[in-house]
Amino acid sequence: MIDSIEKRQLIGFWRGFSVLFGAAGRLLGLPRAWPFMITPALVFLVLEAAFIWLSWSYLKPWASEYLATVSWLPNALAIGASWVVTALAVVLGWLLAVFFAPVLSAPALERIVGITEVELKAPSREPMSFVAEFWCGARALLSSLALTLPVVLALSLLELLFPPLAIVVTPLKLLLGALGVAWGLFDYPLTLRGIGSRQRVQFMRRHFTVVLGFGTAFSLVFWLPCLGILMLPVGVAAATQLYWEIERAPGDRQLSQ
After folding, report:
1. Cα dist. 91→50, 55, 85, 225 in Å?
2. For site-directed labelling of 38, which of 81, 110, 174, 238 has its Cα 20 to 30 A away?
3. Three-state DSSP state, 212
4. What Å distances lie between residue 107 and 25, 54, 101, 125, 207, CA to CA?
5. Reported pTM
6. How many whole angstroms separate alpha carbon 19 and alpha carbon 257?
7. pLDDT in tens, 41-86
8. Residues 184, 144: Cα–Cα separation, whole Å
9. Residue 179: enclosing H or E segment and its boundaries?
10. How many Å apart are CA 36 and CA 16, to the nearest integer?
11. Which residues contact 135 (CB under 8 A, 6 or more apart)?
């Protein structure tokens, strides 16, 4: 019989890294989860389509008309500049769509957490209001950015000023990025259980290796364009599954109690 210390050791870096595959298989095997799985991608597509339509229908004509009034600008350059302005607006819309899609998809992601908890036979909890679900999504995104973005920007500036430090700074940025992704994904199941920020910090500190493995796996996925949005439901399900594996490991203090 494996003792409690050995069982805790099984939930380490590799388990955090590999939970992605189990969570994806679990969701794909649950047809009731499919509508919620595709929600972030659909929200992203609607937002991006709206930005493209606005840029093409309103911004491009306005830019063309305005640039045509610039006397020193040749007509061909004015037309080209209007296309550049439109393309930049579409790129900006893509970035905004990536930013807002998780927030607007928060109710669907909460359903993913609920479905995963039912499959894991987790204790029941009080449902959240519709507004609280949106706030859950916003906080998951904003808290992750607040924890990592300032430090990453400072490290990038340091790397720019002192290029030889890149050998140290680059791994630090990757580490912070992985932890930030893990923090944001764990925020969904932890928030729904009423677990506060101090307890979350303790949770990540006590289980640093598994959290780092989890964040590393999803950081690699999120680097690929648009794949982060597609994999967001899987990330939320994986965070929920990993949380309950940790909670049920012998010898761990139960955050949910």
Report:
1. 12, 10, 10, 13
2. 174
3. helix
4. 22, 27, 11, 16, 28
5. 0.82
6. 24
7. 999 999 999 999 999 998 888 888 877 776 666 776 767 878 888 9
8. 5
9. helix 166-192
10. 23
11. 106
